[in-house]
Every structure is written in structure tokens, then in C-alpha cells.
Amino acid sequence: QVQLVESGGGLVQAGGSLRLSCAYSGRAVSSYTVGWFRQAPEKEREFLSSINWSGLTTYYADSVKGRFTISRDTAKRTAYLQMNNLKPEETAVYYCAADRTATPQTMSGLIRPADYWGQGTQVTVSS
Q1: What pLDDT, on the 0 to 100 scale, is given for residue 111?
Q2: How far apart are CA 127 and CA 115, in angstroms?
Q3: Which run of H or E residues covers position 105?
């Protein structure tokens, strides 16, 4: 049984930082690509970043490159998204996802939904 649980969301001022965590269970997830997405009200879901099973390969959307950093602790079975210099327009629900076959790059352009999703964590950036 695969389960993803996000945490670390909250309220932050513009220019501030947050670190999101995605704890995953299910032994097979250790071999999956994990990614982060967000969805603001009345907007489409947006890909942010992804990381392969070993943590050695990462991929970022242009909108967050240089400000967000994805990482993965395989021993703790947790993926992270460090977010710096946050902007008010980045207020959204942030989700982590895992996929059995996607690479970090292909996860950015998946037409189908990723295989597994967390419940999401709210990030609110005040101006």
C-alpha cells in the first residue's frame, strides 16, 4: 500500500522560506520518481520539481529554478522541497506525487496523472 503524506505548509511572508516534507510508505516507492506540484484556486495543477530514486537526478520548472531545491533522504523515506524567496502568487495547495515509470524530466510533462498522490499541504504567502 503506497501512501504519501505532505507536511510543512503554512503561512509565510513574501520573500520567506518554507520546507515541505513528503513521507512515503510502501517499499516500492523507494524506486519511484517523486515530484512536487501545486494547484491554486481556479488554476491548473503546475509541476514544480522532481527527483529520481537515488536523489542524484533532479528536474525543475523554470518558474522555481534557483529558488526551490528538491532532495530525498532514502533512509528516512522522505522527500523535501526547500522553497526560498516565496511570492504571494505562489499561494496554493502543494502536493507530492510518485510515479513508477516516469523519470524526473518526463514527470514534468506527464499527460496522465502520476500514479500516487498525497493529500496536499496549504502554503499561503502574504504580501
Answers
A1: 87
A2: 35
A3: helix 104-107
